[in-house]
Amino acid sequence: xxxSESSAQKDGAGLTVAVLxxxxxxHATYDATGAGERCTEGTRVEVLKEAKRLIIxxxxxxxxxxxxxxxxxxxxxxxxxxxxxxxxxxxxxGGTFFFSRVxxxxxxxxxxxxxxxxxxxxVRNEPACEEALVAELKKDPDFYxxxxxxxxxxxxxxxxxxxxxxxxxxxxxSQKTSESLEPQESQKPPERQKLPDSPNxxxxxxxxxxxxxxxxxxxxxxxxxxxxxADFKCRVPVKFLVTARPDPRIRKIRVHRSCLHPRFxxxxxxxxxxxxxxxxxxxxxxxxxxAAPEWYTDRDPAxxxxxxxxxxxFAAATVKHVLSAKDGFIRAKRVRxxxxxxxxxxxxxxxxxAFILARTTALSSSDRDRVRLILAAIIASRxxxxxxxxxxxxxxxxxxxxxxxxxxxxxxxxxxxxDAGDLRVLQMAFVDFFFKSAPEGVRVSESYGxxxxxxxxxKRLAADDLRFNVSETKxxxxxxxxxxxxxxxxxxxxxxxxxxxxxxxAEPSTYDSQIDSVLRRKFLFWLELTSQIVEADHWSELLxxxxxxxxxxxxxxxxxxVDFRVGRISRCAQFSSRRDLVRPVVLEGHRIQRGPHLHLxxxxxxxxxxxxxxxxxxxxxxxxF
Length: 625
Prior knowledge:
- This protein is of the alpha/beta class.
- The protein has 25 helices and 11 strands.
- The strands form 4 sheets. The chain has a 5-stranded parallel β-sheet. The chain has a two-stranded parallel ribbon with strand order 3-4.
- Helix 2 crosses helix 3 (74-86), helix 10 packs parallel to helix 12 and helix 15 packs across helix 19 (447-461).
- Mean pLDDT is 78; it is low at 1-12, 168-199, 551-597 and 600-613.
């Protein structure tokens, strides 16, 4: 059956947008699972009210900037504002991006993903932008390799400029009406006609939210993003909500526009007002807890709020630490212990973290090692993991993981079920503390968790369940199933994450023999399963990352030799981007659509295209294996 021209165009547009969605970071949006906690009802009322007023207003700066130290509640405020704007009829929440340096959200620390994420959400929320966006993507499908300024101009500004502001549309309609009328002295001025509905006539203000800008790792990308936001110009009304710590990297960026001057400095607000909000938050949480209220006094919330010193993160850690105990007597004991801490505010937050981790010093040496291992692995994980999945990767039982985390639920969210819900760190400030200021027996380097997961991933790939036709597809010409039937989450994770963890490990070259052993036997099996995984990046990108990791520490070799080896890997990886890579293996965007056919394709040759076996040999010759 031959498709109609309009149908073919629609399919082409969908395919083009699908390429954009490859670089859409789902966990970075405000409505993603585990995005964070909103402001408790009745708190931060004035800040939310004034910020919303500035955002909705068509006047003033196009950037509403909220600045505050760690733990002052910037993310909670941003999340609450997004909820409020979502229901505001005069505003379209065009897109959101919440930065994070936690490794489980590694893409959330890279500024290059901001624009593609905002553009993906924008076209979903405002379909009238799709045609212009698709046109830009067709012109340059390699947008991700370009500068942030280029991406914003082509993926945001041009699609937005395809919309027609209501005032411009009304002006055109009025002019058209006046030209059609004969001028007569006795005739009254024509009444203002109702503007005809048009898919490209836009009546609302578009708002984009970017939270935690200081969490961007690359200073060059950070500087480019700030400059581009400052210079943002569009024919439709657009505003940006931006939150960040007072990071020296941001402060030293020189821009000519005053729009980047903070509108709200949370650390300079009236401490009494903030303390009252914190007290209200603690009272609400204590009152709504399942246990009877006899375990705390009327004065406890006020004294704990005073101890917080204006830092909401301190209050949140306190509440979770206290309420993680089910027994009222233990809760009361924990309240007393927190009130006895010497420091307040940010120093008090670090003392709180140290107090929570101090319980681990009484454990045996093997149990302390497990605490370090599990916490480091949770932080380093490329994506949040279930208890069962992490247990399989670390070769531990789920019960042992739960025992380690039972007293750490003030800083780590632990789901009730082993195979549902994800483990995650609750506060970014704890990650900084864990790597830099934790007690001597607990503190580890950032590479510690990556090393543990690199070993676990390679061991998992060596297991027998990574085999031929792991997806149990009936025919090599059948498209990959949308849902992986019965493939363990730990195996799927290992397939896409092993190069990532090796890249960030302390010494990538130590994994040479393991990589060699696994991929010599299971290269095609790994490639087949990777093609089944919806979230997987292009397999060649995974190989390239591992290859770069393998040579990046070879300082004793000449740079030319290192560049040559990486160059060969890179050229080899480019083969997979070609649509004629062994024709039966259909490529869509960055995903191989018929995984099982790879085994046949590995021995077939198409004119001008290397066989997969030739690619493997090239990798081997480049020193990868």
